[in-house]
Amino acid sequence: MALPLVALIVVPLALTPLQAEPVSETPAPVVATPPPDAPVATQQGEQPEGATVEPPPARAPGLTQENYEEALVVESLVRRGRQVDPAPEGKPLSDVLVDTEEVVAESDPYPDFLNIFHVRTRDEVVRREVLLPLGQPYSTRLAEETARNLRSLRLFSVVRVVPLVGKTPGTVSLLVVTKDIWSLRLNSDFSAVGSLLQYLRLQGTEQNFLGRGKKLAVDFILRLDTLSLGQSYTDPRVLGSRWSFTESAAIIIGRESGQAEGSRGSVSVSRPLYSLSTPWSVSSSVAWNVETNRVYRGADIWQLPFPGGPTVPYVYRTEEIAGAASYTRSFGLRYKLNLSGSVGAYHYAYDPPRASMLTEDQSAWFRRNYLPRAEDAGYVSMSLRAFEARYEVLRDVDSYVLSEDYQMGHWLSATLRYAPPVFGDDTHFTEAGLAARYRLRWGEALTTVSASGSIRRQMGDAATWNNRHWAAELTQVSPKVLGGRFVARGLLDVNIDDLFDRVTLLGGGNGLRGAPADEYSGKRMLLVNVEYRTAPLVIKTVHVGGVLFLDSGSAFNDRPDMVTSVGVGLRLLFPQFNVNPFRIDFGYVLNGDRPPIGSRFTFAGGQVTDLRPSFLDSPL
């Protein structure tokens, strides 16, 4: 009976946002893509791990103030009676000290008996990520990378790595201060417009099983037409090695029929590039997805206008299986160059379900204009990834006081893929994808420019160019203004002769707040978001902030017809339980259709600027 009681207390706080989904669009095929070079990737950078080394203040401030991380460092220094080394570079490393803070500290506004139900991360889990060998010269670069690697584990809300004066003259000690995130939790991702719940994901997770960094999860996903029940297991360090293993499987059930409609799942084994100096990585994966796809506009299935006859419901059966294996060689330290080769194969099949009862003419029209392309192919590919291994730490951008790491300078990814005619001439092609980003910091301001593009050349007798797709994004974060920040984002996504006939839906919680849910559709999208995010009000470490916003966007096929909305919002961050805030927004459309007042509210996890096409990072 104790665990249900704990759940009643913790669940309202531990509904932690999962990674935000991209702007709504018809589903893209599942691809068994090998894990990226870095252990975990985010929109912030090539390696999104942890905080940089920063000296703490001279005295211990209160945990309820904005210096949340610094206070934990100072408390550790006072407890150990140690001092920060202001010039550690090159001194021999004598020892490594680990100080892991409980989820609920004395100053936190939650009962400390909750710590009974959380196994604190074991010291060896922290120590094995330390890249500085004992007895070797201290390196600030490796200390910073150690902190980033620890942050990438997603076990901690705070990671600080601090050099201390060694007990032996002329040496240095390394202090690693971490604060666990509550690991037995109900992670969530959701999108709601007024009373319409478009998407809900609840994941009961033990993210740090027995304090060893393993992840066990049961997964529940609710969509307008289906629900799915599944499980997953992730071991980032199999038997203490550098190998990682991930598996997941789920059954998909139709909400109306109550019958099983399909399943999805994946298995992946890899040895990732766990540090900037790691010379090689290898990975293999397989994934499948069998289900019935129903494309909604608002609360109803989209009825497509069939010429000269009744409408056609946008419903189709999906069968996707994919597998791949890759090997990567990594070069350089400051300026990284990763070269990868991979082989893979996939089977994609899409058909109208019998329940739609389409005529032959309707079925042919539906396949020609809306269904994704059915395709079986085997391929080989070569990839190049180049970036500058330079990182900056900012706060009060997305997650208030917690450290946010950004890879600075250039980032480039290029892929060339060739599919021989193993399964016929229709699947004989060459395609290329290119993605680039440049990020520049101006004092406390941050500018990010991203662009990507892809194209395919169909080979054989019917040689032609197709699958032309490109996108661009500009994001600007201002210096602090009245304690808060302005954040502006412009996004353009253009699909031309897309073989998979993806359609973008815009309106409501997916970027155009205040508009009717999924009101606008097209194969191209232009979206602008401007926000002023206030400084947070800190109430016993709970961070509450406000937002003023302007959204303007259009989903279109030929020319954009911009719809603009303005509004206000609220952001909530509980640093003991999550690193991303929850958002509640109310929007008012200035020049388009306005839904009922209740439908102008949107509720979701993360910031609206997290909603971006994955194509910008991975065009193939």
Automatic annotation (TrEMBL):
Residues 208-607 form the Bacterial surface antigen (D15) domain. It is found in: Membrane. Keywords: Membrane, Signal, Transmembrane, Transmembrane beta strand. Residues 1-20 form the signal peptide. Pfam families: Omp85. Residues 26-62 are annotated as: Disordered. This is Bacterial surface antigen (D15) domain-containing protein. It comes from Myxococcus fulvus.
